[in-house]
Amino acid sequence: MEKYIINGGKALHGEVEISGAKNAAVAIIPAALMVDGVCHIENIPQISDTDMLLTILKELGAKVRFLNKSTIEIDCTKVRYQDAPYDLMRKIRASYYLIGAMLGRFGSAKTTMPGGCNFGVRPIDQHIKGMTALGADVDVKNGFVYADARDGKLHGARIYLDKVSVGATMNIILAAALAQGRTVIENAAREPHIVDLANFLNSMGADIRGAGTDTVKVNGVDRLHGGSYAIIPDQIEAGTYMVAAAATGGEVLIKNVIPRHLECISAKLRETGTIVQEYEDSVLVKGASSLRKVNIKTLPYPGFPTDMQPPMGALMCLANGTSVITEGVYDNRFKYTNELRKMGAEIQVDGRVAVIEGGKRLTGAPVHACDLRAGAAMVIAGMCATGTTVVEDVRYIERGYENFVGKLKALGADIECVDEPEDSDSSDKILCVC
Ligand code: UD1
Fold first, then answer.
1. How do residues 359-408 score in pLDDT, each as one tens digit?
2. Is 161 a pocket residue for ligand 1 (Cβ < 6 Å)?
3. Which of 201, 205, 307, 200 is nearest to 262 (CA)?
4. Residue 150, Cβ neighbours under 10 Å: how many?
5. Which ligand 1 atom is at minimum distance from the Cα of 189?
6. How far, in Å, is the centroid of ligand 1 from the Cα of 328?
7. For the whole model, what pTM was predicted?
């Protein structure tokens, strides 16, 4: 079981290169299944969620080849319909995109209910509403999702989402891309990765307009052809390094970003006294000697991203004064605050609101990464704490951050990843340092 061992107190300095966006890649890889040709996709992040999806594609019969570290060639021309491999699908949230992609290509999909990070009930009723409107019979039974186009083919429809959902918007776009006729998605989510998925599909011959607004129009086409595409940089990975630089009082140039996607994070960091300078495709973050309190409310894009809430929560523990977080997307995304309390943080949680009495010194402790972004928050807290912090369950972190330890070490953090068997004697616990 891998853990991170962090000795706190080192400010981050230097430059870090941001990888491709996880939440775009996990939709674009399944989208390749719909392409009747060969796709070259650049800027694929090397994280366990993309590894898992590529393995699923291979099990379905796709030819997948890495052309270099972050560019893959995917050829799905010979893929024939079969059930998706359940054990792999259960492990990741984004496996739900295979429903839209397989329905679009084959008119049928059988998948497991999605896994992923657990922050409260995460239903997929809006995905199902969309697929049903497109002419599919969808049934959820014993943890499986069965979806079949009623007459073998999907048909365009007008779909109003009752809740702004990233996943449902992208899944419906996937299914509608090869449907007959026009689909209109109203109250659609507007995240940058939705635009990226639409751009990928359009570059392969789809006809999708309005992605990035709350009305997306998809004119179904008969076929998608092969082509090349580069995934956008990861907004949340970039934001995490911005917060890490601010929290440790360092100075970091964060490269390969789209500064417009980071505006809400930059704005909140500036409120804390942190200096954020934007360049064409990079941002420079200079930490302040003393951080001021700040309030955030998470909302769908262009609001403050819920995935940045835990890293900001860690920073607020250090900021002077009382900061308030209002979680506007999930019911239960404050589990990580129990871990921060183990390090001396003072946090009260009431439903979707957390009140943080900042300015307290954090001290190193053994803590858990409760989920992907909570794990990043624990690493940030550990880098700011006095003494040693041991972060367990880092497999969650590795779902979404490429080479997290390597990138932080290059910035001067004292962090090691150790792999130790759970039942071994402490004298021979460390098997490898990665
Ligand atoms: C995606 C991101 C995740 C991010 C989230 C919100 C991926 C793989 N994951 O998750 O990192 O935290 O967007 O920005 O891209 N909901 C319903 N019914 C549905 C779908 C969603 O009630 O059918 C609810 C969810 O429980 C949640 C809210 O809507 O409370 C937003 O969820 P959604 O935007 O769908 O998030 P995901 O696509 O799962």
1. 989 999 999 999 999 999 999 999 999 999 999 999 999 999 999 999 99
2. no
3. 307
4. 13
5. 34
6. 12
7. 0.94
Which ligand 1 atom sits closest to the C-alpha of 300? 14
pLDDT of residue 429: 34
Q: What is the DSSP letter of 320?
A: B
Residue 423 in this model has a pLDDT that exceeds 70: no
Average pLDDT over residues 19-41: 97
Distance 81 CA to ligand 1 centre (A): 27
Q: Which of 224, 223, 261, 229 is nearest to 242 (CA)?
A: 261
Rounded-to-integer distance, Cα 88 and Cα 136, Å: 24
Contact 194/169 with Cβ under 8 angstroms?
yes
The mean pLDDT of 81-105, rounded to a whole number, is 85
Q: Output the CA 175–ligand 1 centroid distance in Å.
A: 18
Summary mean pLDDT of the chain: 93
Q: What is the mean pLDDT of residues 20-36?
A: 97
User: How many residues in total does the chain contain?
Assistant: 434
Q: For a ligand 1 pocket test, name from 129, 163, 397 the mutation site with the most ligand atoms within 8 angstroms of its C-beta.
A: 163
Q: Does 120 score more than 80 pLDDT?
A: no
CA dihedral 209, 211, 216, 222 (to 10 degrees): 50
145 lines ligand 1 (CB under 6 A): no
Ligand 1 mean position, distance from CA 327 (Å): 13
pLDDT digits (tens, 9 = 90+) for 225-281: 999 999 999 999 999 999 999 999 999 999 999 999 999 999 999 999 999 999 999
Name which of 301, 367, 299, 358 is nearest 335 in CA terms.
Answer: 367
For ligand 1, is residue 168 a contact (CB within 6 Å)? Answer: yes
97: helix, coil or strand? helix
**pLDDT beyond 60 at 65:** yes
Catalytic site includes residue 117: yes
pLDDT of 332: 87
Ligand 1 contact via 186 beta carbon (within 6 Å) = no
HEC secondary structure over 230-297: ECCECHHHHHHHHHHHHHHCCEEEEECCCHHHHHHHHHHHHHCCCEEEECCCEEEEECCCCCECCCEE
Cβ of 329 less than 6 Å from ligand 1: yes
CA of 197 to the centre of ligand 1 (A): 16
| C-alpha R_g of the chain | 22
Residue 10: helix, strand or coil by DSSP?
Answer: coil
Q: Quick one: what percent of the chain has pLDDT higher than 70?
A: 95
Nearest CA to ligand 1 atom 4: 307
Our answer on whether the CB atom of 146 is closer than 6 Å to any ligand 1 atom is no
